[in-house]
Amino acid sequence: MASGVVYDANLTRSDVLVLKNIEADIYNHRHEETLDASGDGDAPKSRAGTAPADRDDDDEATVQTLRDLNNPKSEQFEPTVFTSWDLSTLNLNPFLDQWLLRPYVRAARGLLRVETDVVMLTHLMLYLTTSVPSAAYLFLGGGGGFNWVHGLLHAAMQISYMGSYTLMMHQHIHMRGILHRRLAWIDALFPYLTDPLMGHSWNSYFYHHVKHHHVEGNGPGDLSSTMRYQRDDICHFLRYVGRFYFLVWLDLPLYFFRKRKPLLAAKVMFWEWGFCASLYLLYTVNPRATTCVFLIPFFLLRAGLMVGNWGQHAFVDNVEPDSDYRSSITLIDVPSNRHCFNDGYHTSHHLNPMRHWRDHPAAFVKAKKLYASHDALVFHEIDYIMITVRLMMKDYDTLARRMVPIGDQIGLSMKERAEMLRSRTRQFTAEEMREKYNLT
User: Taking every annotated instance into account, which residue ranges of this chain make up the domain Fatty acid desaturase (predicted)?
Assistant: First the structure.
């Protein structure tokens, strides 16, 4: 019987290793079921089935390979240089490889907080040499003044950058930087230039995500919690997005006041309100450039953040909603992991917010049995945005096919998978949340 696992040609090397590891579990589980059904459970294992001790060895070997890819002292070490290609599969002209790529990688490794993250320096240089001069020209311009073609192309370019930039900054806000500590001043300053170009208001991502979302963990106190909504209902989804879109400037300061953190509330008000005031002033000076450079990215990013968070926390267990394993998911897909720094390993991130993005695959395989015991959800061939879209369509059959079953889930039929997923999108009542979280 086929495993149902699909290998996209653009998966990262790490994701291929993870999927193959899970696929082996699926084949082994089904082989054991076949032996049990035939009454031959004591028969020797064939190639299709592997003894438990051998599977443990396979897991350890996979974890070690993943760690070696991240270890600068290992011969297998492979830094990430570009989001679109793995270094080992980049068939570059030998001259360019020897005299351009390799020297760049060697130099870049010494400028970064973590040596695997050459890609972040690559992206930072990309933004500084494209986004910044393009935005400056739209505002300051030459004799021809503002040009709508340039303006809209600039906005399209920024939209294409948004995902990777946001997840680069996700690493930045958790680790308090991405560059070597001797370059801390650059780390501290560049977001004030690049954040607004990508739709981010100054420092709001840090305060909302690190100081609020990870503290509350999608629970009742989380302003971005999905629990109080029916997660396959478009009206509930629009209310969810609308609340963040129009009221986060007020909700987040009030949250910190309620938590008796007035200094954080004051900082949020200063940066969020100051940013909005800056946009207003810029609009009065140059409305067309402000629209293309700042407003379009700003409004699209805020919608995108909520669409993504909905997908990340759409499936919440009714019995144990406060479990990170049961209130978030893992995706093994190209958009999330190749282009957005392993954002698909969302459960791993909630379990340890300080875990480096390259360490998620190894951490997942190492803790795979724990994930399975908690009935955690793993998907592939789908990203968070499309999970949200499929939920709005109530298309649980597609979501069931995109599942990568682990543990007891392997024995479920597609219909049973779909019903299980449907049960995890149910809205929690206020009474249920009080009971589950011991609220008074």
Answer: 148-380
